[in-house]
């Protein structure tokens, strides 16, 4: 396994919380740039939670959601598969020693050169939703294991995908017949209810539709044994359907339409589920301007050193909602109507047009929780502002668990032996064997100001 390129700082925290790590950095007088604290314990917790709630569904992590090397290395070591959408994503995953069979090329409309690359490196599973894609695959990668992606109801999701991807169910017979004529191997069906789904029934309806397509495919001569239920799983608890509620509905629907004895392999493509709550962004107030509204109400305008061209691109592309949390004692400070802005010279670089914040000063810090999904992956360096540094925290109890995995030596090499100071941790660094028992690790503490 190759070591992480541009490895983020990895701190082994034995007697500190995530809050302690944040405090240590914001009290450093030389620290002015924004930074992210990545709680690796939270990612491991999510992996355990998935295995407990949906043991029949193998997670294939959506790399596009957050491709931070530490995240990819950790999930690879835990044993997830990967949902890749491009040549670069496939290469990044294969470079970790992940087998091609643990990758699904889940982009229904692919570049010819990327299909050729997938064929060359042994990635066979890939999705399609149109006839032209079948002809491309026949010419370039005829041994591919194809998965037909259907359009399902995604009206209850924050980010709807059906307008761009997924064939209508009525078009499935024609596409399967074309695939049959081309002597292509269609192994199963996939769907995506949309990113950040808020309605559990979207999954049950989609799974029922897939059952009908499996039966239809059998009549055409395909004996499918693969189902991809896509993504949409929430990354943190909110006012809508929780992961646990979705998992219960999915499990019941799979047992009804695809029972264990059917022999169908079932995967999903979770992204934000694994990483959203694990990342906390800390930004510095670099400037402040006092103004008044048309009604004469005083307004404080705060300028941060990260904005919509950086981590907060999620406001535009992911329809995210963010909340600034002051990292100072605000007990005796008055609350004022405020707005929050990014550092660039573009007026579109607005994080919050209107909010209420205690009176803050230049040089003080605010944090934003749940910043792990669709944030740094699409960040730019527009106007010369750099992306936040990632400081990954690896608590001792998680380190001890990771040592029980057969992939521990590779993970240790990836993180860097010198990054983990075992002498002060008083733990056993030898590889241990695991009995395979699934149990939920203690949930990491929430970040508090």
TrEMBL record:
GO BP annotations listed: putrescine biosynthetic process from arginine, via ornithine
SUPFAM superfamilies according to UniProt: Alanine racemase C-terminal domain-like (SSF50621), PLP-binding barrel (SSF51419)
Q: Does the keyword Transmembrane helix apply?
A: no
Q: Keyword annotations for this protein?
A: Lyase, Polyamine biosynthesis, Pyridoxal phosphate
A GO-annotated cellular component: cytoplasm
Q: Which Gene3D superfamilies match?
A: Alanine racemase, Lyase, Ornithine Decarboxylase, Chain A, domain 1
Pathway(s) per entry = Amine and polyamine biosynthesis; putrescine biosynthesis via L-ornithine pathway; putrescine from L-ornithine: step 1/1
Q: Which residues form the Orn/DAP/Arg decarboxylase 2 N-terminal domain?
A: 40-276
Tell me which EC number(s) this protein carries: 4.1.1.17
Task: Name the Pfam families on file.
Answer: Orn_Arg_deC_N
PROSITE patterns, per database record = ODR_DC_2_1, ODR_DC_2_2
Top-level division of the source organism's lineage: Eukaryota
Which positions carry N6-(pyridoxal phosphate)lysine? 64
The protein's required cofactor(s) are namely:
pyridoxal 5'-phosphate
Q: Which reaction does it catalyse?
A: L-ornithine + H(+) = putrescine + CO2
The positions flagged as active site in the entry are 345
Q: Which GO terms describe its molecular function?
A: ornithine decarboxylase activity
Q: Where are the transmembrane segments?
A: none
Q: What does this protein do?
A: Catalyzes the first and rate-limiting step of polyamine biosynthesis that converts ornithine into putrescine, which is the precursor for the polyamines, spermidine and spermine. Polyamines are essential for cell proliferation and are implicated in cellular processes, ranging from DNA replication to apoptosis.
Family (UniProt): Belongs to the Orn/Lys/Arg decarboxylase class-II family.
- Assembly information from the UniProt record: Homodimer. Only the dimer is catalytically active, as the active sites are constructed of residues from both monomers.
* Protein name, entry field: ornithine decarboxylase
**Species this chain originates from:** Oedothorax gibbosus
């Amino acid at each position: 396994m190759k070591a992480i390129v541009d490895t983020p700082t990895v701190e082994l925290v034995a007697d500190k919380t995530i809050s302690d790590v944040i405090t240590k950095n914001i009290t450093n007088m030389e620290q002015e740039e924004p930074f992210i604290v990545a709680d690796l314990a939270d990612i491991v917790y999510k992996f355990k939670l998935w295995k407990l709630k949906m043991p029949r569904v193998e997670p294939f992590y959506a790399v596009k959601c957050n491709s931070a090397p530490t995240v990819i290395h950790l999930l690879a070591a835990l044993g997830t598969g990967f949902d890749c959408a491009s040549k670069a994503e496939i290469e990044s995953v294969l470079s970790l020693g992940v087998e091609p069979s643990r990758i699904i090329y889940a982009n229904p409309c692919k570049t010819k050169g990327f299909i050729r690359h997938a064929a060359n490196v042994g990635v066979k599973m890939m999705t399609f939703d149109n006839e032209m894609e079948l002809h491309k695959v026949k010419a370039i990668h005829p041994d591919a294991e194809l998965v037909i992606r259907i359009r399902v109801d995604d009206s209850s999701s924050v980010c709807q995908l059906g307008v761009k991807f997924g064939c209508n169910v009525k078009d499935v017979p024609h596409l399967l017949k074309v695939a049959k004529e081309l002597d292509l191997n269609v192994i199963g069906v996939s769907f995506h209810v949309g990113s950040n789904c808020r309605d559990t029934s979207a999954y049950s309806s989609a799974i029922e539709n897939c059952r009908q397509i499996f039966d239809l495919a059998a009549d055409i001569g395909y004996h499918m044994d693969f189902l991809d239920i896509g993504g949409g799983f929430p990354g943190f608890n909110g006012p809508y359907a929780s992961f646990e509620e979705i998992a219960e509905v999915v499990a019941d629907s799979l047992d009804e339409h695809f029972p264990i004895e059917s022999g169908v392999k079932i995967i999903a493509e979770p992204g934000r589920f694994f990483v959203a709550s694990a990342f906390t962004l800390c930004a510095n107030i670099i400037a402040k301007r006092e103004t008044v509204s048309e009604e004469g109400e005083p307004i404080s305008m705060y300028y941060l050193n990260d904005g919509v061209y950086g981590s907060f691109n999620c406001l535009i592309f992911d329809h995210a909602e963010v909340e600034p949390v002051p990292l100072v004692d605000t007990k005796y400070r008055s609350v004022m109507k405020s707005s929050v802005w990014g550092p660039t010279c573009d007026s579109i670089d607005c994080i919050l047009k209107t909010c209420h914040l205690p009176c803050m000063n230049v040089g003080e810090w605010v944090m934003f929780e749940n910043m792990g999904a669709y944030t740094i992956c699409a960040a730019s360096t527009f106007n010369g502002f750099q992306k936040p540094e990632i400081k990954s925290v690896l608590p001792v109890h998680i380190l001890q668990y990771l040592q029980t995995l057969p992939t521990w030596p590779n993970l240790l090499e990836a993180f860097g032996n010198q990054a983990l100071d075992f002498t002060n941790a008083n733990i056993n660094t030898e590889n241990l064997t695991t009995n395979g028992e699934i149990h939920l690790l203690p949930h990491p503490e929430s970040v508090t100001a």
